[in-house]
């Protein structure tokens, strides 16, 4: 069975959308195998977004994620095709391209405040689960 890393980012926490987001994955039938509330350290946030290091918004993104204005809800979800289906449940990166019915399509307006993260491949899921969680924290 497949696993993916999903995080409600601090804007999603501040807006009170944690239960809405968890509910969508639960009602689809996926299984929650790890969850914690955490303010990521700078090294973790930089590693998490390592593929975006050269982008102009990288520093602002890492500053935001590590700001501590609210925690991130880090999760691991398990089930058939959960990496790809999770990305569909979340919707396109830019909320203006995200379909109604997706999380970003239903709740967000700007790419810098798109409330949720989901791994985009098996490789990134494996890396991100290991980055955010110790093995004993995952069921
Ligand atoms: P995520 O990795 O968060 O699930 P994604 O895979 O859809 O999102 P990425 O290209 O990996 O998109 O970008 C990671 C995050 O960086 C986005 O979720 C968004 O918060 C931020 N980001 C991406 N592009 C921009 C941009 N042009 N301006 C500001 N922030 C951006
Ligand atoms: Mg991404």
UniProtKB/TrEMBL annotation:
Q: What are the binding positions for ATP in this chain?
A: 9, 57, 87, 93, 104, 114
Q: Which domain of life is it from?
A: Eukaryota
- Residue ranges of every copy of the Nucleoside diphosphate kinase-like domain listed in the record: 1-139
- Name the residues annotated as catalytic in the UniProt entry: 117 (pros-phosphohistidine intermediate)
Family assignment from sequence similarity: Belongs to the heat shock protein 70 family. Belongs to the NDK family.
Name of the protein in its database record: Nucleoside diphosphate kinase
Originating organism = Rhizoclosmatium globosum
- Parent-protein residues present: 753 to 891 of 905
């Amino acid at each position: 069975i497949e696993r993916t890393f999903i995080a409600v980012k601090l804007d999603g926490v501040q807006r009170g959308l944690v239960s809405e987001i968890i509910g969508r994955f639960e009602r689809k039938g996926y299984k929650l195998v790890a969850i914690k509330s955490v303010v990521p350290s700078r090294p973790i946030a930089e590693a998490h977004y390592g593929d975006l290091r050269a982008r102009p918004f990288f520093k602002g993104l890492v500053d935001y994620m590590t700001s501590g204005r609210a925690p991130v809800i880090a999760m691991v979800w398990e089930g058939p095709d959960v990496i790809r289906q999770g990305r569909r449940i979340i919707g396109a990166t830019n909320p203006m391209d995200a379909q109604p019915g997706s999380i970003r399509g239903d709740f967000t307006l700007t790419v810098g405040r798109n409330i949720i993260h989901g791994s985009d491949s098996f490789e990134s899921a494996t890396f991100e689960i290991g980055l955010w969680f110790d093995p004993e924290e995952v069921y």
